[in-house]
């Protein structure tokens, strides 16, 4: 045994790990869930010795059950309130690395809200099967009032015979201290023998003896105390209805062991009491199985079905970075009520795609088809909120300054919902004139009137009357309609144009107003950004395109040039949805040296672009041996298949763009994938000397080693990212930002190349059986977007990371009319500053109605935050947490500024502030 206690306690916790969808489509799993829950309620009612059940830490199970069994609500609620069914703290068991920082928080918030309706919340930091664990989990748990984390992956237990672990990612015991980058600590419980180590306990004495001899020894090998944890359940496991009898048999066979049908609160209380004199290992930061052979990390789920990750990036961003702040702004102007109900519905619909077998893209094809519909549903709700909110705020902006240009002035508002001042190229479709069907004009006359509307003589100006370089495209006659709140739909014909221009210095969390007007003088023409047949330059960057399409990008401030950027690489992949495996001995193909077609396709005052076209060919698939190996379920690292000798065309079209005020080089790549069993990456050699690199993770810019640990055998060392990956030597750095491309690798090639995965085509689920997934080959048209950001060595201080975060969020624009209003034509709802600090969210709390603002410190050193909310009424600020609970009131800072406050953020701290207003 791993302890000196005279008696030990076997805590048997009944549960089921419920993947909503995986190797079966959602509804087939759903039917099995109904049967399980029916049996659970009957067992709790008929067997008093069946004491409790843990509902897998996710409240969505309750929703899914009651959707089919609404008549069972009262009985279900009874067992929850009596403490025999334990629920929460999450809404779903998400993959934390592939869902955004705020999505992780919304998941925690909604899980708590849903559980609270039943009078109880299981304060268990439950991560049973996440594919690696985020470094900030301890801080998130502590802020949510949870002092523990129960997880299954990421740390290697060394066992009782090795009392002192020799690594930050090993633990002497299955119990450990997990410390976040900010210093927050929670008690970690590692499922060293997995979350099924107490599954299907025998009732037969002979079978029970063999079972418990093995199970007690296995648990004792890693346990630091006599409090042994046995999880009675597994994936989609029906409950064990004869467990009470099985426990009686175990007690008879092992009189020195106390067998109890336990629960997490009782187990954790007993464990903490027993740990008082124990020295536990401390593991720090991200738990990504760093000290393993690297073949079973499941990290390449980050590149399985990339289209899902891209849709998720769009869905998360529009909710947290556009809909929530815009709805908060509209609420603060008094124009609309904050739509808590709609936002919660949109978030829940999106989060139904966030379980690890869903967003990871590692399920059967039917599952992922349904996910596409959910992404669309959530986005449609979010877009409706955005439309309502932006028009409400635009209606509160004073645009009367444009009355000087006459009745034909067409004002428009550009919204910057990111946390930093922003410049960038924007587009908006404007209705120059409308004629409504209700006016009773003959159809032909309506159409003629709109076609005759003149578009000549117009200039775009800002509120100061300064002309803004722009282009417009005549979209011609268009049909449209209004949906008034108090009338039937109102159809109309309109003459519509699309304006494109660079909005400059739009305030953070604010807006800037322009108008397309008649009679204004145009400004002086600006020099072209195209400086040669294959070169571009603005005041920040210069770009030279080589004959093979690679880029030499020079940071003008430092004079540093990064060469050979944007090489495309193609390699065979005989792995599966979980893990990449390149065929042995087969080198990757690249576009280095492959001549490309290069031409200018855009040359405007605000932006210039080159098109680069590679006409390439790549192997059509893996060879014939691969099909045999899949059918025989050969373990993927041991596969010997190679690539086919048949080739298919692979044409890559790249648009490289530079905006006049831009700090980065925009990359938009499209290709029609007709090849199978391969991976496509974009390579960005940094040629910077560094042993570590940085990547955007969850509320953290994580620092990771370039070289894996000595135990690592996998030739690939791919990692998760959110917004960007970055290599820096301390004085120069290169950040590669992305939209929904969650996998990268820093290559051990002597150049510290950042390799971003654009596509991975595979044909099977993998894991425990033979599950073909032909749609995971991702055939057809693909489009990806990246941003190259050179900087002066510290991406947090120089603003490169801020630019990468802004790259994630779309601009929002709204046409409005000439009118008075309470907001100035250039307005910020929040002014703040703090070096190395990132802004994360602005929303209205449902419980209090307060404005909630969140930042996080990107660096492991203290930082000073100063903020001035511009909420238009008496305000008081208070410290809060991720559950939006009110804490200590913050003292005003500045010269009596309304609602202003200052705070010092600790290293890597997640900092939430509530603002009480009169609204």
UniProtKB/TrEMBL annotation:
This is Glycosyl hydrolase. Gene3D superfamilies: 2.60.40.2210, Glycoside hydrolase 38, N terminal domain (3.20.110.10), Glycoside hydrolase family 38, central domain (1.20.1270.50), Golgi alpha-mannosidase II, domain 4 (2.70.98.30). It holds the Pfam family Glyco_hydro38C2. One of its GO terms (molecular function) is hydrolase activity. The keyword Hydrolase applies. It comes from the Bacteria. Belongs to the glycosyl hydrolase 38 family. Residues 301-375 form the Glycoside hydrolase family 38 central domain. InterPro entries: Gal_mutarotase_sf_dom, GH38_beta-1, GH38_C, Glyco_hydro/deAcase_b/a-brl, Glyco_hydro_38_C, Glyco_hydro_38_cen, Glyco_hydro_38_cen_sf, Glyco_hydro_38_N. Keywords: Glycosidase, Hydrolase, Metal-binding. It comes from Paenibacillus glycanilyticus.
